[in-house]
Design goal:
Elements: H1 5-15, E1 20-26, E2 29-34, H2 35-52, E3 59-63, H3 68-79, E4 83-87, H4 93-102, E5 107-110, H5 113-122, E6 131-134, E7 148-150, H6 151-164, H7 168-175, E8 181-186, E9 196-200, H8 201-214, E10 222-224, H9 232-245, E11 248-251, H10 258-265, E12 269-272, H11 274-290, H12 293-314, H13 320-342, E13 349-352, H14 359-367, E14 372-376, E15 386-387, E16 400-401, E17 406-409, E18 414-418, E19 425-426, H15 430-436, E20 443-451, E21 457-462, E22 467-468, E23 478-479, H16 481-489, E24 494-500, E25 507-513, H17 515-524, H18 532-536, H19 539-556, E26 567-572, H20 592-598, H21 600-608, E27 612-620, E28 626-637
Helix pairs in contact: 1-2, 1-3, 2-3, 2-6, 4-5, 8-9, 11-17, 12-13, 12-14, 20-21
Amino acid sequence: MQTTFPRLLLQHAQQRPTAPAMREKEYGIWQTLTWADLAAMVQKLACGLHQMGLSRGDHLVVIGSNRPRLYATMLATQALGAIPIPLYQDAVGAECVFPINNADVKFCVVEDQEQVDKLLEIREDCPQLAHIFYDDPRGLRKYTDNGLGSLDELLAAGEVFARQHPDFVQDEIDKAQVDDVAAMFFTSGTTGNPKGVVHTHRSLLDRADAGAQFDHLSSSEEVLAYLPPAWIGQNIFSYAQWLCCGYVVNCPESQATVTIDLKEVGPTYYFAPPRVFEGLLTTVMIRMEDAGALKRNMFHFFMDVARRWGPTKTDGKSIGLWGGLLYALGNLMVYGPLRNSLGMSRVRVAYTAGEAIGPDLFSFYRSIGVNLKQLYGSTETAVFVCLQPDHEARADTVGVPCPGVEIKVADNGEILVKSPGLLKEYYKNPAATAEVLTSEGWYHTSDAGFIDSHGHLKIIDRVKDVGRIRGGANDGAMFAPKYVENKLKFFPQIKEVVAYGDGREKVCVMINIDFEAVGNWAERRNLPYAGYTDLAQKPEVYGLIQECVEKVNADLAEDSLLAGSQVSRFLVLHKELDADDGELTRTNKVRRGFIAEKYQVLVDALYGGATQQYIETQVKFEDGRTGSVNATLKISDAKTFAVMGKAA
């Protein structure tokens, strides 16, 4: 796409000035910002930032939730030829130090007092950080720190400059080239310091446009922007594609109101990682368990109908007269109200990405008429590498290559990608860049997979994580930990799983229960508990989790390729895995290696045949304090099954 982000903004503002560009919910009321309003705001912000010293090629950090003025700040930064860097709003201050220093950041624009406090706390470690601007002034009236100011003040100053120099911003926008750097995204940093992924206007907009063309997106779409803008998935869907298509981006009032706002907005284009879809399904299952016997029985009956015919119908194929009648009745009684309750009654296209989704979870949504599809990509590829066509969505593939993408499989099974959306480089890290980009332009994804007979890409796991069982009855069997973890996470009682087995004679897992789901289950059975740790170690809870594990084992036994990955032993962790404790990335991916080191005593107990193990773990609370949690964890054996089927 031969344009830049600011030029697309001006194009929308000129062609459809009164059309809504964004909506933000404040105090329960949706406020609309038109394209003309947005363009005027961007002009003022760009002028204000220019006066403060932001120059072409400089970096500016943005930290906060999805807010119209933060989006406008990124556009204003790009209008000046500077480079916005969104960082995760839930990251602690220490996690921001490396990106700010690595990119020599002098300017930060943040959402509120929480983010201001975070930056002031680390300012001594970032001496070049001269200016901090905030959007929400609540709680900041008495702050007198040097370089601290509000976006209102910046807008006011910019307005004066814009009146004096009306052509300044347009002149700056005209200087930009499509191959100029447009944004930088920092990776999760699972194995060390995060890497700054550098993208140009061309790479981001080319992929955004390719995705839009693939799914026939238009300006009439409605999108809910509720995931961190620092995650490139959210950034592509609610920023790059937003500017490509000109649709409406809706910003929730807060994380606590997302579910309500989802129902009110009724998005037509929806994007969420598997964890969000898991959470929505858990909520549904909890509510159904609390329902009366008649509603519960009706729900289960029609869900059986949905599982039998729903995916076929969603794929646009005939399900016959009887199937059609039953499904139509189910749609009237269950599926329609359920989609409405989930906020998906108007969804035309829904995508999940970020990590593999469990096949049962994927089938559930498609069976009730939600056009849920998978895509494959990464920060380095500007997201869109593979997409699933509407009538070819399958749980075990991630779709066909997008237009402009080439894929090949290396001898070790690694997927290599060539695409217009590839990163320009890792910032100030030529060695890391050389590791992932070949001289012929191929990008090493580090994912293992293959192209199936239908031309769809199938991802098995990370190359480094795919292993083999060594010893015992399953010696030499393939072990794909993420596949096992996702199978278990389909159950609403299980929130997170960490599986081990590579180089060992059996598979063992550590499990996080879903506190809300299991707590609700315990209350219905009058089972008292005093918090997460107590509930997790209840014998009744272990019995519940064991049922889930053994159901997964039975499923795995039907596939000779993965039958050796059946879980032999498990334990329920005494605390929830947390990004603040280093156990998850900021995108909620399990840091399997870190967890193995941190909980080495538990891994040893699982494989050593112990029936229980004492552990004490340091934890970090939301207010920054540290403490410890200790418990004696039970370790249980799970039933495994003989191989019953052929490889999938």
